[in-house]
Input
Amino acid sequence: EDEQNNLWFGTINNGLICLRQDGSDSWITMDNSDLRTTSITALHCDRKRKLYIGTSTGFYIYQTDLRKFLKPTPCIQQLTNEFVTTLDKDKHGLVWIGTRTGIRIYDEKNDTLYSLTENEGLSYNYVRAIIADNKQNIWASTDHGLTYIRTSKKANAPYEFVCTPFYDEDGLENATFNNDATCLTTDGCCVIGYTS
Output
């Protein structure tokens, strides 16, 4: 739901659907927009009327009040052909983009893209879900575990990320995490969906 109380739905084969508060709807597809696919895999709407869109072929930003896609920056162009699996935005303004090849963190303010993979401590590169906790740390579920990510930034320096992975031997008991199944409860607990 966006700031204007419109509901947004991503579909696998028909693009984006916006259901407006007055009951009207609009469809955004390859035929009438900048989308290069109709396979929408993740959505996140912020309070600045931006809809972040993950697809099977990249990442887009749509300005909901202007009803148009923002021009891709050089960083966003680097995400072309990435299969986006999940999206979230933290209080720092960082957009967390889960993919099949790791996490990309987009600092929109500075048009900077960071990357986290198994090499940086991610439990596995195929990311299923991402959620920020009430302390603005990130939890990412993957195909082989869970990763706690602490974010920090010193003045006039880039962001730093420290990953702590958790696996079956840490108590996950063969958890198979579901796609984009997360919730932050009112008392600050992160809930991440899985089957065992």
Helices lie at 74-77. The mean pLDDT is 93.
